[in-house]
Please model this.
Amino acid sequence: MRERIDPYTALIVQPEVTVVNDREGIQRNLDRVKNLIHFGVGYFWEVPVRLVVLPEYFLQGVGTPGKGESKIEDQMKKAVTIPGPEVEQLGEIAQQYGLYICGGGVVESVPEFPDRWFNTNFIVGPSGDVVLKYHKWHINASLGLGTSPHDIFDEYCAHFGGGIKDLFPVIDTEIGKLGTMTCHDGCTPEVSRALGYNGVEVICHPGAIQEVEGVSQPWDFWKFTRRTRAHDNMCYLLGSNWGSVNYDYYPKAFCPGHSFAIDYTGMVLREAPYPAEQVLSVTVDIEALRHYRTRTNHNCWIDVRTEGFREMYTNPIYPPNRFPAGKPPKALVEKISICKEVFDDLYARGQFTPPHGYEPGDISGLLEKRIQYAQETGRLKKS
Model:
């Protein structure tokens, strides 16, 4: 019989982030989040903190299209290794307080594929060691230059394994079953569903969610999609976003906070609905979650009937293996251009219907014209 897990406090850290130019600049961001962790652990001492979640790109920041766009060489200057000296500093705090700390969106260089970087989440445990590492799967083609395992799928699986537990790992700990997904992973159901399939009870969800994507009312796409992810998988979801940012090409409220804690019913427990630094605390009750899952009524897993859905996933949509070893994407346009093929497929099979005046085969050409205009006018960098 398992030992009972007492309720504990989880911290969701919403820091100010500085976009840095090289690895030396990382320490400023790291020192800030370390101090915020020290604050939260000390302040919420009555129900001890056992888990901390940090946002995407909390170490290095990132540049998006326009004058501030990052190319691959820009990001490689600030890439780290995991484990490595930066993550070890968080490991020391984890060891000091008996914590699990999840950080996300780290620009990571891996020895197996030295010509590129991965957008990586990690969890360090109370031992101070890295106990989980996850490479972001759904990288937005128009914004994310990091390599997804899907971009190099066959080679990646040969090195790291291609099973659902290899690609979307969940660890069984003394504070529950922990997993993680990153930012755009939460926009569609698949990654959280894979984590749910692997038994996740708490999804640590680092994000760098921009206001242009809908972080505030009336849209607030960030919140309603993540409430759905928590509800569908009957798990806690702890979402961390930047509080504000220092970067010449971004407004301070580029990623305007709205970090939150959502419970296993999809209910929002806590939120920091503003663009400023904050540390949220929430009580996580794993035993209550486990009791909730014993019910049949409105149980989002026991009634799943999988056979009818196989056809949706048999054929690729965004194609795999497009950036094999030795051929990493140098600029965003290389990933965006692949979307022309995706449009051709979606329209050809009738899933999407073109607007008036267009035929199915016209849409990829429309995207190409937009790309050319953006490059000619300095809105999008060339490879």
The CA atoms of residues 215 and 237 lie 16 Å apart.
